[in-house]
Structure to design on (835 residues):
């Protein structure tokens, strides 16, 4: 036993020392900042292109990349691809990257990464653009409909600007028979843009499509369509949905014109995913320092070397040990009773998707209803697997219903539910009902509350951004954490609740 | 906060064992994982006990597959009363105690009449793992129904009272009589509201009791005093408990026993993680006693002596008996 204790002490010391030393090295020698800088206008954009290359055919993939004519400054730009030739051209105000390879096989993944900051980029070139164009030719019913629409637009507008925004508003009024005829039942932004384009062309007003990316992090997105027109001095931007004029500040123009984002020869199923992140100033510094000091090769292996999308996943994953630590402390030091060991951590992860208050409400509602169903099923004396399947199906249906209801009520929050892990809920219901039967309702209630408290605390700790940044940048602190966990493994003191449980001893 | 620290110190001084200490210093240290099935599966426990010549309720039969449910009639053909148990059940769940036959049906102890179909449904539920920990497939155990010794009638309410002795490396360290109450539905489980009554290891005379973490001296249902009752055949219980170490190989166990009217002390089951409320029942901390046993073991090891069950019982009775001065 003594040798085991010595062994453990040495191990803990080693882990803690290693953790502290590595972190200290990162902070003091490499000078990596300890807190995240507030740099909202610093963006890292990853565009990930995936496709399947056809065998025995050369691959040529063209994708638009931002022309950077706005107020943004590109800090650095990289095209990450194995064995592909890369070429960037400017065509009609757009920039196009061409990736090409003689041979490629199977699934291909290419990355385009752009780091930019919103800084005023010196003098702007004088904008130039067309102010007149020829009409598109329309015939028959569509011609009459278009003209019927144009008459009031003309009446209600004073100049090009008001004319365009009036036209967009009209096209968005789907109660109008003329609009419905021109749209042909397709109310997508694309199609509306086409109809607006048609109307404006009859009035000889030029119009151009603009495809933008919204600078917002942690949100999957596809390019958003805007329209623009030149009024002689400036480009005017319009939203095809509302007719609202002026491009919001968080939009980055990716390309102009009617062509699709990518064109691919020698492959199929091309797909682009955008990932944006705005806390990457440190990553850039990190990369710079890593270049400057050659012996800092340790950092090549830091988590910042991963692609952005993966980084975001790791930012969540790397916080899980902290959540587990919370549970460990609450259970072994506090004596809080929870369902299972790590169920609270999983629930805490689920709270990420749903937000805390809503998550707790949802958890309570679904668990309560599930317990009701479970107690009914108890009468049917079903075997375990069929019983669990029924409960799981019920949970899925319940979540779907909640999503639908909250959507109808206009609560978009309800949609996040879809990601609330159903299996965790099912197991929670099952275990809770077993606890209920074995130890009674009071105990089950106590355990459920304990689980929620533990999950909430774990969630709160795991969502502290400064902490996430710290652990993500200095993963060696996890070694210190492991040291603490090891020490806890041989802790023999009382739990807080035991001080109350054994109160009877001290009553004499 | 200061009050809590004071309380902590006071508990420590009394040698009260907490869960963390029990797990780290006793369960993890003395109980090897691979031996757990011996105590988790009542059928294996019983078979080991029979081999070792330790008294257990007689096994009438085992049902391990759905097909074998047909054999049920044959198993109970010669018995009017018997107990149906899941082999890996926990907390007394899934146990059916049949007290008599009633025409073609069976009558449980609570007086409920159940048909053979219902019993077969129950058997199938047990097999499917309805009552086993973790929902694994399980086996059914059909055994002798214990008739509690009339001595308990005065201090007990329904159900079968049982005796738990905590045994460290074969040395009994603390004992408790568990009495079912109305609240515990006839189950002798402290979590469910049964009473624990401390027992003097030397004499088998009951001490004060514990109910829901409080100290008590009367049975809440009958109002009779629970202390000062002499348990019959106490040395038999002590020897039975001490012998369980050789039986299962686990160093720190709770041995649950009953006193049958005819057969005397019988082992019901073993528990690899015995609870801590026994300390309240005995108004005494476990740590002082376990340390005494560990000191004794170290001393014996240095002399290269191994004690027999009888010697271990004698040591425990001399050292931990309340009628003798405390250590």
């Amino acid at each position: 036993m003594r040798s085991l204790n010595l062994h453990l002490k040495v191990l803990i010391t080693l882990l803690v020392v290693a953790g502290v030393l590595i972190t200290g090295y990162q902070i003091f020698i490499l000078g990596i900042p300890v807190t995240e800088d507030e740099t909202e206008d610093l963006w890292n954009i990853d565009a990930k292109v995936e496709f399947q290359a056809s065998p025995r055919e050369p691959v040529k993939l063209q994708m638009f990349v931002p022309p950077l004519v706005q107020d943004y400054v590109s800090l650095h730009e990289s095209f990450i691809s194995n064995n592909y030739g890369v070429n960037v051209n400017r065509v009609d105000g757009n920039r196009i990257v061409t990736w090409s390879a003689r041979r490629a096989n199977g699934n291909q993944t290419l990355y385009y990464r752009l780091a930019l900051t919103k800084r005023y980029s010196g003098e702007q070139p004088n904008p130039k653009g067309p102010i007149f164009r020829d009409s598109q030719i329309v015939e028959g019913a569509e011609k009459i409909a278009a003209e019927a629409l144009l008459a009031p637009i003309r009446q209600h507008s004073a100049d090009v600007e008001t004319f365009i925004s009036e036209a967009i508003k009209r096209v968005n009024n789907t109660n109008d028979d003329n609009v419905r005829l021109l749209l042909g039942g397709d109310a997508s932004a694309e199609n509306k843009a086409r109809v607006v384009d048609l109307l404006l062309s009859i009035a000889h007003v030029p119009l151009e499509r603009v495809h933008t990316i919204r600078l917002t992090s942690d949100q999957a997105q596809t390019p958003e369509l805007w329209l623009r027109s030149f009024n002689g001095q400036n480009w005017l931007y319009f939203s095809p949905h509302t007719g609202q004029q002026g491009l919001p500040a968080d939009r980055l123009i990716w390309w102009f014109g009617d062509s699709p984002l990518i064109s691919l020869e020698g492959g199929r199923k091309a797909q682009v995913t955008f990932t944006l992140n705005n806390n990457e100033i440190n990553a850039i510094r990190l990369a710079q320092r890593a270049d400057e000091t050659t012996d800092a090769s340790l950092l090549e292996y830091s988590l910042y070397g991963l692609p952005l999308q993966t980084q975001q996943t790791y930012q969540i994953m790397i916080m899980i040990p902290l959540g587990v630590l919370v549970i460990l402390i609450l259970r072994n030091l506090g004596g809080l009773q929870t369902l299972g060991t790590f169920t609270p951590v999983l629930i805490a992860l689920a709270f990420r998707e749903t937000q805390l208050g809503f998550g707790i409400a949802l958890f309570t509602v679904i668990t309560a209803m599930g317990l009701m169903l479970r107690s009914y099923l108890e009468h049917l004396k079903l075997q375990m697997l069929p019983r669990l399947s029924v409960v799981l199906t019920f949970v899925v249906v319940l979540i779907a219903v909640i999503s639908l209801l909250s959507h109808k009520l206009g609560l978009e929050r309800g949609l996040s539910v879809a990601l609330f892990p159903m299996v965790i809920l099912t197991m929670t219901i099952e275990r809770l009902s077993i606890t209920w039967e074995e130890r009674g309702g009071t105990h089950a209630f106590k355990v459920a509350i304990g689980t929620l408290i533990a999950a909430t605390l774990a969630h709160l700790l795991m969502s502290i951004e400064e902490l996430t940044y710290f652990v993500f940048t200095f993963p060696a602190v996890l070694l210190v954490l492991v040291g603490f966990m090891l020490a806890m493994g041989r802790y023999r003191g009382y739990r807080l609740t035991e001080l109350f449980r054994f109160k009877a001893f001290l009553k004499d | 906060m200061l009050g809590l620290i004071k309380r902590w110190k006071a508990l420590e001084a009394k040698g009260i064992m907490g869960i963390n200490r029990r797990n780290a210093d006793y369960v993890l240290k003395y109980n090897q994982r691979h031996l757990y099935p011996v105590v988790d599966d009542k059928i294996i426990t019983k078979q080991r006990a029979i081999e070792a010549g330790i008294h257990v309720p007689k096994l009438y039969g085992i049902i391990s597959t759905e097909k074998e449910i047909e054999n049920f009639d044959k198993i109970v053909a010669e018995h009017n009363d018997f107990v149906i148990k899941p082999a890996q059940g926990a907390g007394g769940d899934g146990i059916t105690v049949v007290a008599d036959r009633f025409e073609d049906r069976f009558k449980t102890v609570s007086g409920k009449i159940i048909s053979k179909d219902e019993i077969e449904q129950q058997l199938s539920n047990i097999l499917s793992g309805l009552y086993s920990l973790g929902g694994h497939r399980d086996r059914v155990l059909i055994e002798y129904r214990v008739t509690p010794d009339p001595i308990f009638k005065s201090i007990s309410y329904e159900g079968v009272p049982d005796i738990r002795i905590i045994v460290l490396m074969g040395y009994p360290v603390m004992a408790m009589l568990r009495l079912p109450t109305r609240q515990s539905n006839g189950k002798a489980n402290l979590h469910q509201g049964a009473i624990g009554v401390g027992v003097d290891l030397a004499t088998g005379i009951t001490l004060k009791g514990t109910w829901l973490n409080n100290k008590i001296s009367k049975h809440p249902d009958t109002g009779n005093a629970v202390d000062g009752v002499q348990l019959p055949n106490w040395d038999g219980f002590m020897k039975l408990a001490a012998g369980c170490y050789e039986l299962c190989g686990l160093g720190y166990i709770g041995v649950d026993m009953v006193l049958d009217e005819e057969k005397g002390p019988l082992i019901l089951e073993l528990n690899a993680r015995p609870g801590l409320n026994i300390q309240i029942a005995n108004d005494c901390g476990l740590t002082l006693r376990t340390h005494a046993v560990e000191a004794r073991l170290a001393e014996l090891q240095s002399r290269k002596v191994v004690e027999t069950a009888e010697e271990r019982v004698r040591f425990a009775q001399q050292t931990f008996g309340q009628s003798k001065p405390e250590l």
Q: What stands out?
A: The two ends of chain B are 32 Å apart (CA to CA). The mean pLDDT of chain B is 88. Residues 286-302 of chain B form the longest helix (17 residues). Chain B has two domains: 17-39+149-320, 58-143.
